[in-house]
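An instance follows:
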Amino acid sequence: MPAETPVLILTGPPGAGKTTVAGELVARFPRAVHLESDRFFHFIRSDYVEPWRPESREQNQVVMGIVAEAAARYAAADYFTVIDGIVIPGWFLEPVRDALHDAGHPVALAILRPPLPVCLARLRGREGQPGVESGAIERLWRSFDDLGDLEANVVEAAGEDVDGTAETVAQGLQEGRLLI
């Protein structure tokens, strides 16, 4: 790893495998934290808006700001910290990255981007979780479609198993290729 291990933002569309890969990554470190940003949304008990709806922007900014603050605190306490969530470039990535940089932490980004049919199949296989409207899933998937300079941070993981994807991300961290 680089001299100071960066906070890793592990993102991608719903069904990309973020939570599974994050779990594998943090298991490789003796001191690590896995912040599942989705859980932070569930702390809201009244006036909650589904985070994929356009009217949720203010709520989402608040929640992701809190996620960034929590990540910064864990990283300051020398935990390898992974933020797992739908951190969309041009919407939430930049404010989260900037908050972490302002707190003095290097930041790495890995974008998992399996093909849309793979994501949809994984989502159909989940039991006991609230569904996301299919149109919203496709819109979220397309948010990760044309990333310009961030294409270098994409991990095309359609054919790899969890261990292989986690290894690809770990190598990117080790080599400093994922820094943003």
Observations:
- The mean pLDDT is 91.
- Residues 15 and 122 are 5 Å apart (CA to CA).
